[in-house]
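Appendix B, example 12.
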Amino acid sequence: MKIKSVECYLGNYITLKINTDEGIYGWGEAGLAYGNSFEAAFGQCQDFAKLIIGMDPFDTEKIWEHLHRHTFWGMGGGAVISAAMAAIDIACWDIKGKALNVPVYKLLGGKTNDKLRAYASQLQFGWRSLIEEKDSLQLLYEPEEYYNVTKDAVANGYDAVKVDPVLAPVESGGDVRAIFQTQGTHHRGSMKYSALKKAVDRIAAVREAGGEDMDIIVELHSLTDANTSAILGEA
């Protein structure tokens, strides 16, 4: 089996499709769809795609080493390089599973758990009903909004959630896309009392909506300094 062609796609997710001479294809994703590096990852996928034509997709280690060691900049690694390499690797494993007619997890050592606990992640961007209604991610500001999306997640069967209470500014408005791309860099140094209070109120709303038995994972995206993080934790 040989890699015949590679198609790269730039959208809400950076994906690629590896086609083989036997008609089997595999999909992979470069996980840099947010921030300011998604176009770089897309371009790196295109560059790497040219280097694997004619190779056997079953030779995942050989392909990985080829991209890592024979491209000069690949030796340095980094998020963009690694994301593109990972997209190709995922697609090759997809091809392996299809060709052998087995789930990929069997090729990776087999199943160790019958099920895994999942949590509803990044509720500050909304949850299922709100995202479907608006047809896009939202940035939530008011505690009532956090309450509503938590209720939505609980209705979907989740007993744990993850939320960032500081990513959104205190007041709504401004360029939401810029906030997404800069990951809330409006925080510098110690957090103002108004922002601290809003963060606490958001988490309180999540707790009220989820009840005492729901687990809450607080995500800060490295936006606060050590002192503010400690104060926020105590609050």
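The chain is about 45% helix and 10% strand. The longest strand covers residues 3-9.
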